[in-house]
Amino acid sequence: MSEFKHVELLHKFNCANYYSSTCSCGSHFIHVVVSCDEEFELLTLHTETRLGDWRYDDEDWFLDKWKKFLFRVRSAIQILALGYIETEQEFIFEDENHAQDFVDAITEGIERMKEIKRLEEEKQKKVKLSKRDKAILKEMIAEAKDA
C-alpha cells in the first residue's frame, strides 16, 4: 500500500491516514494517524503505542517476573489515584532511511489532508451558488465555448 520500506500505510480513512512502524528491536511498534478535522480546521497527529513492563530484564526468572508484577500493580494504583500514568519508551530506527520513511509518511499524510481540505472548500463554494448564479455561469461557459 505504501512506498515506504519501514513504515506501512495500514488504512486510508475519509480524513485520515493510518501508518504503522516497528522498532528495530522487533518488540515495539508505533501507530501514527494523520487526520484533519474539517469543522475546526485542525490537522492532528495521533500516536499510539503499547506500554508494557519491558523495563525489567533480570537473569533470575522469578525476580524478573516479580519486578514486572510490582510494576503493573504500582502503575494500576497510580492510574486509580491520579487518573494517568507517565512512562517513556524508546523507538529505535533501523537506520537513517527508517527515520526518513517515518518523516515522509507523516508528510504524505499532511499533503493528503491539505488536498482533502482544498476539495472540501471547492465543494462548499459550489454549494453556495444559487440556481440563478448557476444559470449565469452556464451561459458564460457556453459563450466562452462559442467564442
Alpha-carbon distance between the two ends: 46 Å
Shape: elongated
Number of helices: 3
Question: What is the residue-mean pLDDT, rounded to a whole number?
Answer: 78
Beta-sheet strand percentage?
15-25%
Largest sheet: 4 strands, antiparallel
Q: Which strand order does the major sheet show?
A: 1-2-3-4
Helical proportion?
40-55%
Number of domains: 2
Please tally the β strands and state the result. Answer: 4
Radius of gyration: 25 Å
Structural class: alpha+beta
Poorly predicted sequence stretches spanning 5 or more consecutive residues: none
SSE run: EEEEHHH
Describe the structure.
The relative contact order is 0.16. A hairpin with a 6-residue loop joins strand 2 and strand 3. The chain has 147 residues and is α+β, with helices and mostly antiparallel strands. It has helices at 61-82, 96-127, 131-146, and strands at 7-13, 16-22, 29-37, 42-48. Strands 1-2-3-4 form a 4-stranded antiparallel beta sheet, covered by helices on one side. The chain folds into 2 domains: 7-49 and 89-146; 55-88, no CATH class.
SSE layout and pairing:
Elements: E1 7-13, E2 16-22, E3 29-37, E4 42-48, H1 61-82, H2 96-127, H3 131-146
Which terms summarize this structure?
elongated, alpha+beta, 20% strand, four-stranded antiparallel sheet, 147 residues, 2 domains
Characterize this entry briefly.
48% of the residues lie in helices and 20% in strands. It is built from 3 helices and 4 strands; from the N terminus they run ββββααα.
